[in-house]
Amino acid sequence: MRAAVLTAARAPLAIADVTVSKPLAHEVLIRTAAVGVCRSDLHFVDGLYPHTLPAIPGHEAAGVVEAVGSEVRTVRPGDHVVTCLSAFCGHCEFCLSGRMSLCVSGETRRPRGAEPRLRLADGGAVAQMLNLSAYAEQMLVHEHACVAIDRDMPLDRAALIGCAVTTGAGAVFNTADVAPGETVCVVGCGGIGLAAVNAARIAGAGRIVALDPVPEKRALAERLGATDTFDSAAEGVAAAVVEATRGGVHHAIEAVGRPQSAATAVAVLRRGGTATILGMLPPAESVGLSALDLLSGKKLQGGLMGSNRFPIDVPRLVDFYRRGLLDLDTLIAERLPLERINHAFDELRRGDSTRSVIVFA
Fold it and tell me: Catalytic residue among 95, 146, 163, 185, which?
């Protein structure tokens, strides 16, 4: 198959021939239909986060099942599926306590000494990134890294549910548990942030504030449900949000991955409010609450992949789309072939557009 291979950090991805192994007992072979281009991939491509190389990035995908291992019971050939990087074992402490997105069991990967799932044409092993490696014509994954969806769901839009929507909407529905009438501020209006805005509207939030330096993204946020928008780069923006919401917001959701945006999320909270950090901050950075914040009952939390239970959440999000509640069409800025993956990353670095989607014929 053809795949986009990262051979060195800060270098363009190369389109290369890659060999895919046959599915083992609990594995699923998927023909990739579409993959969203996410900033999390860019962090690995640009070397902000380390990873074994060569590797195939890509983790926000949808496709069609081609083959399954002998013990697979959750999907079958012909099923349309959405994949998720937070593969789960199903029986560790995190899984059994309902926190499946935190599972770190090695059981979802091939055991040490087994044949690699992916190899270059010359026989060299290719590291599978984030359990998926979706910038490729096929994916070979553990059965607990994918979930079947309605076959009427367009796969280019379904792909976005695999990360951006699961993370952004999950932060609203699961991590923050936004109640009807509460105020929400979303910092950053990329794919994840816009999904959070949309989900806040579905959840019945009373005021939804969206912050972004790009006017076009603020306009999209208004289309998806934002009641107020501000330029996040403007001086005194946090104070402006606090004033507009009469004391600050109940929930602030950071969807960028920059220290300043995380600080803004904390600064816009009202007494007793909660900031949820979704973005991948540089590893050495930290976010905190001051003594006065603590005395005011403010809270700070992470929200890995929207605290998802994706076998349950993904079909529900598909249903939201089909009922006209979840607007995935607005999130897609452009559809590109695999050969233009480096262009898609350049657009992501500029930060002016929402979501590019790699589509396969």
Answer: 163
